[in-house]
Write a structure and sequence with these properties.
The chain has 231 residues and is of the alpha/beta class. 34% of the residues lie in helices and 19% in strands. Helix 5 packs parallel to helix 9. It binds ligand BV8.
Length: 231
């Protein structure tokens, strides 16, 4: 298993206290996707959207990585080949656990973006519509996250990684958001062995050769232990 590519979703951060999206008490249960995770929603009510992300930024700021994040950092440190994490999550828990080769395809809560000039900077704890961009001074600041209808970050790195992967794993994702939801199918078609680690079946489970079921903090460390003992 030379090159391991891992897609993570909200389920890997659930046990760190960060809400998932589609579980019954998830983030979307309190908000309509189109109101808080689309450019149109932001144009309609920037206050509501900033409040949604300010609350998540505050929650994420006090969260700690869990045993699943630490296990993936151990895998990167001890696996003889490359380990590349593509995360849909906007929290920094992979990096806090020590992972370095991480791509945030849906952006990051702790980064800000200017909608006018494209400038990016470390997001303040609280963002407001009236904030001016530090570079161009236009009041067009937004969270540096990828909303529905926007192009995910790092696509130029993701496609080659999926083609070259020997092993592709999806951890804690419901397989409902594209293009990430099709990565298992793509990797398998390109010859990777595919494994899904999740609490329950997902919309993409049929794309995986193996499915490990359980809580991430329990099944991810066991899976990593198995990989390293066979390496
Ligand atoms: C794009 C913003 C074009 C940041 C997010 C019809 C068909 C195909 C596609 C589309 C379509 N209609 C519209 C589209 C496109 C659209 C899309 O997919 N819509 C869906 C709703 C159908 N996609 C887009 O718009 C994307 N852009 O397509 O651009 C393009 C594409 C390619 C190339 C060129 C152009 C942009 C999508 C990004 C949207 N932004 N977030 C933020 O606010 O966080 S999406 C949001 O959902 C988050 O990023 C999140 O990561 C993501 C996916 O959710 P999950 O991570 O899977 O979380 P979820 O709650 O759903 O599932 C959690 C799972 O964990 C569950 O299975 C649960 O069982 C499990 N779990 C829970 N607890 C645990 C656990 N597992 C283990 N242990 C536990 N303890």
């Amino acid at each position: 298993m030379k090159k391991i590519v891992i897609l993570t979703g909200a389920g890997i951060s659930a046990e760190s206290g960060l809400g998932t999206f589609r579980d019954e008490d998830g983030l979307w249960a309190q908000h309509a996707i189109e109101d808080v995770a689309t450019p149109e929603g932001f144009a309609r009510d920037a206050h509501l959207v900033h409040d949604f992300y300010n609350a998540r930024r505050a929650n994420a700021a006090q969260a700690q990585p869990n045993a699943a994040h630490h296990a993936l950092a151990r895998l990167e440190a001890e696996h003889p080949g490359e380990v590349f994490i593509i995360t849909q999550n906007v929290d920094a828990l992979h990096e806090m656990a020590g992972s370095r080769n991480v791509l945030h395809m849906h952006g990051q809560l702790d980064r800000a973006l200017c909608g006018a000039c494209g400038h990016r900077w470390d997001a303040p704890a609280v963002m407001r519509p009236e904030d001016a961009c530090p570079a161009c001074r236009v009041r067009a600041t937004r969270p540096d996250v990828v909303w529905f209808g926007e192009i995910p970050y790092g696509m130029e790195r993701i496609d080659p990684a999926l083609s070259e992967a020997d092993l592709f794993a999806a951890i804690g994702t419901s397989g409902q958001v594209f293009p990430a939801a099709a990565y298992g199918q793509h990797a398998r078609r390109m010859g990777a062995h595919t494994v899904e680690l999740n609490l329950e079946d997902s919309a993409a489970s049929r794309d995986f050769d193996d499915c490990l079921r359980g809580k991430a903090t329990e099944i991810v460390p066991l899976w990593v232990e198995g990989l390293l003992s066979r390496a």
